[in-house]
Design brief:
Layout (H helix, E strand, L loop, with lengths): L11 H9 L4 H8 L6 H7 L5 H13 L3 E5 L7 E5 L1 H4 L2 H12 L4
Antiparallel strand pairs: 1-2
Length: 106
């Protein structure tokens, strides 16, 4: 990933974290799981992420092949972000993280 520090390991887990391991990255993916969203929709769903951080995560995730920018067909014709087919394959990760998080001892 250009301009980004990675783990530099030949390990699929490390590579996955290189792509979606930054703060807010998986939460951006969470927001896009139900369909395409505008930047303002993502901001509303992630109020703790500042606009600059959100914009950077969107760029990183697009560069990593997790999401793409698109345009809704008329009459909407607005720019949106949506998961790629590869990004949508993260769906089981959310189920596993949810189950794991619900069993948290703290």
């Amino acid at each position: 990933m250009t301009g980004k520090r990675g783990y530099g390991e030949a390990c699929p887990v490390a590579h996955s974290l290189d792509v979606v391991g930054d703060r807010w990255a998986l939460l951006v993916v969470r927001e896009l799981r139900l369909g395409p969203k505008r930047f303002s929709d993502l901001q509303a769903g992630l109020p703790g992420a500042g606009p600059n951080v959100l914009a950077q995560r969107l760029r990183d995730l697009e560069e990593g092949g997790v999401l793409r920018r698109g345009v809704l067909p008329p009459p909407a014709s607005v720019r949106v972000y949506e998961l790629t087919e590869w990004g949508a394959e993260l769906e089981p990760v959310f189920g596993a993280l949810a189950r794991w998080g619900m069993r948290s001892p703290v």
